[in-house]
Amino acid sequence: MGSNGSGLKQFARGIHPPHRKKYSEGEPITAFVPKEDLIIPMSQHIGAPCIPAVKPRTEVKLGEKVADVEAFVSAPIHATINGTTGAANISLLPGGRRSPSMPLKPAKEGDIVPENFTANYLRRDWDKVEPKDYEPDQIVNAIREGGLVGLGGATFPTHVKLKKNPERPVDTLLLNGCECEPYLTSDHRLMVETPEAIVLGLQLAARAAGVKRAIVCIESNKPDAIEAMKEASAGREGVEVAVCATKYPMGGERQLIPAVLGRAVPSAPKGLPLDVGVVVVNVATAHSISRAVVEGLPLTHRVVSVTGGGVSKPGNYLVPVGTMFSELIDFCGGLRDTALKVLAGGPMMGPTVPSLNVPVTKGVGGITVMTPDETARGKETPCIRCSKCVDFCPLHLSPTKIAQAVRHRDYDFAIKYNMTACCECGCCSFVCPAQIPLAQYIRAGKNQYRLIQTQKAKK
């Protein structure tokens, strides 16, 4: 843990998969305006799903609240374009679940999205804003009203994370700019193109959480982002930049915190960064914080990397939430003949989408289209007890024992070996010489265990 010989921040174990970021890391963020109907799921965050706040066939404006719920762990949903709502239905999500949803038809007259939207999204004059002009409660309330969630993929409501808790004081806030997942580059491009908004969002988050130390954390394979963030952070009180080793999964909270601060987060699922006085915020979330607090703009769009060898025109696109995968991929020139698999996210943790007729949600930062060469795996063979999965697991688990327990439906044994602590990073599957999809077994085991517990609770 801590720094290695080169001075880079480091954590124990982990792997070095091929980066494959060349497809899109040099492509600037480009506006995308949908022409087809959008699907707005009511469940886009961890916590209570939202309830529609407008009736079908209602004309709504970009940014207008269309769904909400009173639960504390929740985040409202807003219209992501100018358009007309449709009748509520059940839609398929990128991960395979189904959710109550609201169709949204683009406006027939006028702009679907204001012409200056992208220019405002990427503006660079945020360094003129003083964070001390905003009170902590004011920041938290603006974040809640803006519907902000963790845009790194976890989708935990941001206002819940940042609200002060006297019983669990926080002293440090980490800005996660590592983006260690192969292929994905949306956070990278945000740091290069609009670093001032990210730094301001970091300072506002730190003020809300009551911390004086804020650290920007970036992997060493993003030198242009490091330079941009250092320049934007210069002279900003309490902000520093830490360069981390390029290693997967550096972007995980339980790896980033030990690497940068030398603090070990207690085991999941109960242990949290709060237990060691730390809050972690993703760079895209920080960018959205600036927009929500200073300008009152809710989360309606996000940057999505469309990448991989199976798509004709890889790039980074500013996309309204609810845009269908199919329309966005068509905008990128469509699928190549060699396209084999489409993922919501990257190849280590992103699920294979069941259909291209699924919407971009708040948690989707990338669409990866892979070819047979990029997905090639050998035939699964019996475990040879080599212990590689144990040696490389960043959480010090025993993936092979958990996976075998799941295969035999012995969930009590799997729980004994901390199945629920697994972050499903995929390191074990990557290093397994027997080509056993260990992470997939564990993910399936966790889902089945939750189902069993739910059924028991109903009896």
Structure commentary:
By secondary structure, the protein is of the alpha/beta class. Helix content is 29%, strand content 18%. It is built from 15 helices and 19 strands. It has helices at residues 117-121, 136-145, 158-162, 186-193, 195-209, 223-233, 253-261, 283-295, 325-331, 372-375, 388-392, 399-407, 411-416, 427-431, 438-458, and strands at 2-3, 9-10, 29-31, 38-41, 51-52, 59-60, 65-68, 77-78, 83-85, 89-92, 98-106, 172-176, 213-219, 239-244, 278-282, 301-307, 315-320, 341-344, 366-370. The strands form five sheets. It has a five-stranded mixed sheet. Strands 4, 6, 9, 10 and 11 form a five-stranded antiparallel sheet that branches. A hairpin with a 5-residue loop joins strand 10 and strand 11 (98-106). Helix 2 (136-145) packs across helix 5, helix 5 (195-209) packs across helix 8 and helix 12 (399-407) packs across helix 15. The longest helix is centred in the last third of the chain and has 21 residues, at 438-458.
